[in-house]
Amino acid sequence: NDVKFWGNDISPGNSPDLNVAECIGSIVKDEVETKMLLETEYNRYHEDT
Description:
- With 49 residues, the protein is an all-alpha fold.
- The protein has a domain at 19-48.
- It has one helix at 20-38.
- The radius of gyration is 15 Å and the shape is elongated.
């Protein structure tokens, strides 16, 4: 439950062709990947965990 909210420093650029959803999706993906790599319990990939 270590939830951290993003500040104003994390935002897409000012270009009108940038998609905000892609930017946020990339940030979420990186955060989830980091948390998965930190998990070291036995059987950590079991679907009930």
